[in-house]
Design brief:
By secondary structure, this protein is mainly α. Helix content is 66%, strand content 0%. 10% of the residues are buried. The model has no long low-confidence stretch (mean pLDDT 86).
């Protein structure tokens, strides 16, 4: 998924999560609903200023729109961390592994 596609998907998700229509969001951003619809569908690019207004409107940091989605589940992430930490023979690594075991229980 490209950054542009990711931004569009997150715009749509945030709007739907708040139960708003494209018309309602467009009105709040002082743009036409047609233009907002094109942005959300990826047919038009959103300006950084408009993206910032959207972020403020929904109370998220603008960086949220640039974060890549993680396709791994919690268990996969934990297993990956454990594997990487087990390769280190340090007291800190052992303490982190012990902590992770406690958190899993």
């Amino acid at each position: 998924m490209s950054i542009h596609e990711n931004i569009c998907a997150k715009l749509k998700t945030a709007r739907k999560k708040c139960g708003e229509t494209q018309n309602q969001v467009a009105d709040k951003l002082y743009i036409t609903s047609k233009h907002y619809g094109r942005i959300e569908r990826g047919q038009s690019r959103i300006s950084i200023d408009l993206l910032n207004e959207f972020a403020e409107m929904y109370g998220v940091e603008i960086a949220h729109f640039f974060e890549k989605p993680c396709n791994k589940n919690k268990r996969e992430i934990v297993a990956e961390i454990k594997t990487k930490l087990s390769n280190y023979n340090t007291d800190k690594a052992r303490k982190v592994l012990e902590f992770m075991k406690i958190m899993e229980a």
